[in-house]
Design brief:
396 residues, alpha/beta, 13 helices, 15% strand, 6-stranded parallel sheet
Length: 396
Amino acid sequence: MKACWMVPDDYGGGVISVAQACCREAGENGHDATLLTLLPPSGHAAEFGGVQVESLDASPVDPASPQRFIEWLKANPQDAVLLNGCEQVDDTPPFIPAATRAIYVVHDTAPRYFRAAIRHEDALDAIVAVSETVAACFRHRLQQPEKLVVIHNGTVFPLAYEAGERREDLVFLGGDKHIKGAADLLALWPHLLQRGFTGRLHWFGAVGQAMQARIAALPRADRIVMHGRAGRTAIFEAAGKSSACLMLSRVEPFGMATVECLGMGCGVAAWDIDTGTREIVCDQAMGSFAPLGDYAALADAALGLMAASQDARRAMADHARRNFSAAAMWARYAAMLEKVMRAPPVQRAMAGENPPPYVPPRRMFQKLPEWLRAPIRDAVGRSARIGYALRDFRGR
């Protein structure tokens, strides 16, 4: 089978890591798989090798992006194409060549990520949601809900799990993104110190100067290790030596960071909200949940994971690697693709024709002046409850 995974770019994040892992596993199972990026590739997708990468070499606002995509498909006929969070080609399903099965993969709970799947339902052969949490957001709006299938993500584990004594360290992977809980971590830190936390906090991801200043002003900030943007191997190494991961996202459609840390025997402390994390952490030995906004309870949850036994850490690593490895994910995708390929293709009246140009959407929030947007972002970021209440307004 020839199959193509279409993504916006390979600059990092959950979407590219999932598509990359799918391509790698498809190739290793004898298929001709291509990772197709809208923007010029950065090389991130080649970190673990085994992936054939091509690009449309477009820009984020290139009006010709839809036409470039359809022309690529005509020049490189595919049995199946999987669209992964690339809004520039969201309106191309009716124009995809008739012989190609089209699958739309929904990676998030905000409406902007599944509107195209609903709008072009008739032109799609299947729709994938990466978790039941995501599927529940739009299943009821589909005319043909039987097209929807839930396929949990998986990841490449570049390092083996190694038993041994753990540092009483914590890992956070959200950079300075409020939606990932960066502001929550600032509020949590004093509670951890008050309870006798003596380890280090490994903070991964890009952090701007304003957030760096706030971190530097924290007590015992010398025990906060800022890693910045780092390769996935570095993250796995830190998780393999730490006792717990802080999963503070107000929105977590699936939870790749949860899977990656569990796979290294690192338990998860998270907010008790409706996220995909609940579909991964299946017992208290793997993770603890605290009421949203209760930083004292969250600190207790994180510190409670420090005492996990070697057997418990081995069990959580085995659980993650058995159910959420790249191979396990590919087995689920392979079953879906086999079913899609057996069924007659959908009929597309405009198959092969030129699609309309891409017009960047005008978000409501962007209409506000920057002097007003900045304090709104900060206010929402500082409140876990407000951030969660407004979680699906992203992109409006």
